[in-house]
Amino acid sequence: MNNHLRPYRENPLLRLSYSLIAPFYDLAISLPLMKARTKSLQSLPADFPEKVLLSGVGTGLDLPLLPNLHQYTALDFNIDMLARAKSRCNGLQMDWVLGDCMELPFADAQFDHVVLHLIIAVVPQPAQCLSEAARVLKTGGTVIVLDKFLRPHQHAWLRRALNPLSRRLATRLDVVFESVLDKVPQLRVLSDEPMLAKGWFRKIVLQKF
């Protein structure tokens, strides 16, 4: 089967890289992003139990910040990251899935909310990742995004210059969110808030209609 149908195969080096950095990942990003994660996850309802997909759960830094009333599914493409996430479950109702954010192993309209924290700007095909989130989301449900994005027509010469190497080892630096969203017309923006690094990181909530 070709890479078009298995998009995670486009960057095998990225999979290896995240296996190598898994032990150090938390030290690098935990504290700088804690407030942003907390604020982003406040977009989840806290008064009624629903089904939530954590697509690209990583080492599970979001898990201690989640309300415990929901039924969660945590997915990641890297078994080492997923193993670390399991240690942070803390009694949450959680299913664990080894899988790809760009080719979710779920039927349509399965979840009330999808959390995409620091994943859209990592995967080789950002629009495919967002499109898959929309596919498995119920009508009226939300996608909660926290990530780093360029603005339309923003030059950001240094980030773009570093991107060819960075995208193969850790994350993309050239993703324009508006361009990604244009390819997923069933989603609309409910809120868009700058968070860190002069607005490079943004907290975005989308709704499926």
Describe this structure in words.
With 209 residues, the protein is α/β, with parallel strands linked by helices. The chain has one domain: Vaccinia Virus protein VP39 (Rossmann fold, 3-Layer(aba) Sandwich). Helices cover 32% and strands 26% of the residues. The protein has a seven-stranded mixed beta sheet with strand order 3-2-1-4-5-7-6. A hairpin with a 4-residue loop joins strand 6 and strand 7 (201-208). The protein is globular and about 45 Å long. The relative contact order is 0.16. Residues 1-5 have low confidence and may be disordered.
Shape: globular
Structure classification: alpha/beta
The helix content, as a percent range, equals 25-40%
CATH class: Alpha Beta
Query: How would you name the oligomeric state of the polypeptide chains in this document?
Result: single chain
The appropriate CATH architecture is: 3-Layer(aba) Sandwich
Q: Report the total helices.
A: 5
β-strand number: 7
Reading the helices and strands in chain order gives: HEEHEEHEHHEE
User: Span between N and C termini?
Assistant: 33 Å
Q: Major beta sheet, specifics?
A: 7 strands, mixed
The number of distinct structural domains comes to 1
**Widest beta sheet: strand line-up:** 3-2-1-4-5-7-6
Give the averaged pLDDT, no decimals: 85
CATH homology group: Vaccinia Virus protein VP39
